[in-house]
Write a structure and sequence with these properties.
CATH topology of the domain at 3-164: Beta-Lactamase
Helix content: 55-70%
Protein name: Single cache domain-containing protein
Keywords: Membrane, Transmembrane, Transmembrane helix
Order of helices and strands: HHEEEEEHEEHH
Structural class: alpha+beta
Oligomer: single chain
CATH architecture of the domain at 3-164: 2-Layer Sandwich
Distance between the termini: 73 Å
Transmembrane segments: 171-191
Length: 325
């Protein structure tokens, strides 16, 4: 692949994934904002209906005696197209009024969070449906029921799908334009300067000038000299390794001789101790010739041991194992 195309390909890949990640984060952020907006709109609509109903409740009108409640519910659904249903339920869950007439008179189970002490508007997601409960209070602030408003989660998904398709279409529109722009910018400001520098460096390494006819020629002299230097270095390294191997073999032989000398010296020391004990035990029973012979043996043994000690000291100094004074 061409050098320019490699740079452009890497740049476009980074740009594409950056745009994709940014779009994903934007969609996720939009989902949260849109859900909060829908919940706020629904809760405001429920609060407005709450004000109208509680005005009559404070004057003592029972909640099941509202003749225009169906009209209020229909008006609420017309003003907010995103609402799925609306209804009025008692505190025990019995449905008094509802946009779906088939549910009137039935009893629903209220969520655990809804209780007599709960006085604020509450919205919960139950089985893919957002349920908003607005408490209704009569005289003396007694809880008489709830306004229940619902809207489906599919509304949020449909908005997200539309936003995702719009984003993808926008990306496919801008990516070719970005490709052309990047190709021109990278070619002019990055690829060409780098290519020129590489050509200069290559010429400086492999070409020295011109011959008599004005034609360029390669500098084989420098290449040949470098090869000779490398061969010479390789020869020196080979000799060094060979000599080192031979020296190590000789060193091992010296170590074995040193070990043998130490063993002999120890044996002589043990023999000298035995002879001295024997002389002490048999001193009275020996004649002059025997004593003289033993003294000669001890003298020779001392000389031999002295020589072994000298050799040991020599080997210790040579091997670097001599004890420090």
């Amino acid at each position: 692949m061409n050098f320019n195309l490699k740079i452009i390909f890497v740049t476009l890949t980074i740009l594409f994934f950056s745009l994709l990640l940014n779009s994903f984060l934007s969609i996720a952020s939009f989902e949260k904002i849109y859900v909060k907006s829908l919940i706020s709109t629904t809760e405001i609509a429920g609060s407005n209906l709450k004000v109208k109903i509680e005005q009559s409740l404070r004057f003592g009108k029972p909640l099941d005696r509202f003749t225009n409640m169906d009209n209020l519910i229909e008006k609420l659904l017309e003003d907010d197209n995103e609402l799925l249903s609306a209804g009025i339920i008692l505190a025990d869950g019995k449905i008094l009024y509802h946009s779906n007439k088939h549910l009137i008179g039935k009893t629903i189970v209220l969520p655990p969070i809804i209780s007599n002490e709960h006085k604020d508007v509450n919205t919960q997601l139950i089985k893919g449906i957002y349920n908003t409960f607005v408490p209704l209070y009569g005289r003396s602030k007694t809880l008489v029921g709830y306004i229940k408003l619902t809207f489906p989660r599919e509304i949020v998904y449909s908005k997200l799908k539309a936003m995702a398709f719009t984003t993808i279409n926008t990306l496919w529109f801008f990516i070719p334009l970005t490709f052309v722009g990047l190709f021109m910018l990278v070619s002019i400001f990055i690829a060409r300067p780098i290519k020129k520098d590489l050509i200069k460096i290559s010429r400086g390494l492999t070409w020295t000038g011109t011959n008599g006819n004005g034609n360029d020629f390669p500098n084989n002299r420098n290449t040949s000299k470098s090869n000779k230097d490398l061969l010479l270095l390789e020869t020196h390294i080979h000799h060094f390794v060979t000599d080192t191997t031979e020296k190590m073999k000789e060193f091992e032989k010296i170590k074995r001789k040193h070990t043998k000398i130490l063993e002999n010296a120890q044996q002589l020391n043990a023999l000298e101790v035995k002879i001295n004990k024997m002389v002490k035990n048999l001193g009275k029973d020996l004649d002059k010739d025997q004593k003289h012979l033993i003294l000669l043996m001890l003298e020779k043994q001392k000389n031999i041991r002295s020589m072994l000690d000298l050799n040991e000291n020599f080997f210790n100094e040579m091997l670097g194992t001599a004890p420090e004074n």
